[in-house]
């Protein structure tokens, strides 16, 4: 007696049932994995420190990260960039970083722990736009004597290579500097102060 083959409708039902059961198994497998990732995402959003390898960041190069829901740029600065920080400071609104836009250890000319590595929150202090990074020292349509730095195309705010704002532009303050320290020669920690930091 010949074996009776299942009808097409029954085959579709069995295939669909197997797909549903397999999909449910995949969901139950994925949920613990996603739960494992969730604390890391939440911790970073809450301000958990992040570590950055800066060993290969060349002068004029920019790395982008996120910390506490804000963008963070880590920028390499060479001797030519640092030299510009001493030039035409009379054009700057707050050249000595007297306003508290940075921790006290970054209230210096280069506004960082290490002169060659600049860490900044790139949010214009006028209305919150993200400025454009122009590291080259060359004339620009917005400044014939451009020394390198940041230009906000929203309303024309300009900042130098240390995030210090120019006079005569709408931004009232220098760019904000987040807490940062070096764990070792090549590892930058964003979100933590240096160990000897006393506050302020």
UniProtKB/TrEMBL annotation:
Keyword check for Repeat: no
Official protein name in the record: Ubiquinol-cytochrome c reductase iron-sulfur subunit
SUPFAM superfamilies given in the database record: ISP domain
Domain of life of the native organism: Bacteria
Membrane topology according to the record: Single-pass membrane protein
Subunit record text: The main subunits of complex b-c1 are: cytochrome b, cytochrome c1 and the Rieske protein.
Top-level class of the enzyme under EC nomenclature: translocase
The keyword Oxidoreductase is annotated on this UniProt entry: no
Family assignment from sequence similarity: Belongs to the Rieske iron-sulfur protein family.
